[in-house]
Amino acid sequence: MELVDRDRLAEHLKFAAELGVAGVSRDPAWRAQGAVTPESRPVPGIPTEALAAVRADLGDCTRCKLHALGRRQIVFGVGNPDADLMFVGEAPGGDEDIQGIPFVGQAGQLLTKIIEAIGLKRDDVYIANVIKCRPPQNRNPEPDEVETCEPFLFQQIDVIKPRVIVALGKFAAQALLRTLDPISRLRGRVYDYRGAKLIPTFHPAYLLRNPSSKREVWEDMKLVRKLLKSEV
Ligand code: URA
Fold it and tell me: Cα of 90 to ligand 1 centre, how many Å?
């Protein structure tokens, strides 16, 4: 094994231990779950084209005030257009605004580890935000911005048709579930949402400030894994 692989594996196991993972399954079916096989690799087809159509419709959006408040670019979403699992965050931050890709900063790196902890890769899932442009100074999105932008997220969900959606943090969970309940009350339950099962969990940025909550996130991710494995 290459040293770099060994380092990555060690880091992966350390993170899994922090999440509270008690052991590693030797079940080949489980290990194969995250692997991209030729059959599971997205083929250019309806979801890819339909997603491109949603992106084209969004265009160089000026529908809300964020376009004039310093956004560099629209951060549409990234990943497998045919994904079973979709993550929804709040809004792009500074790194995302520069790169045009959601969850690439510090919180994004933690999200990548969370995805890998359930045996998947970033490329296997789809990642998007409730709003597609960075709010100035990373302030919370405002109601008119959410109202204007969320139809595009709904279209993304309807095209991708994920089986499971993970709402990352209070803002995404409250926006999707149309509630003001705190994330601590929302998480730990499964919601029916646009044909998918929705699981709210803590935002990775919150986990960076509150590492002890990784255990709860691991509980949520085990539920995600169970739902993805189930036939229903
Ligand atoms: N936080 C989010 O909610 N979304 C991102 O894309 C990055 C950080």
Answer: 6
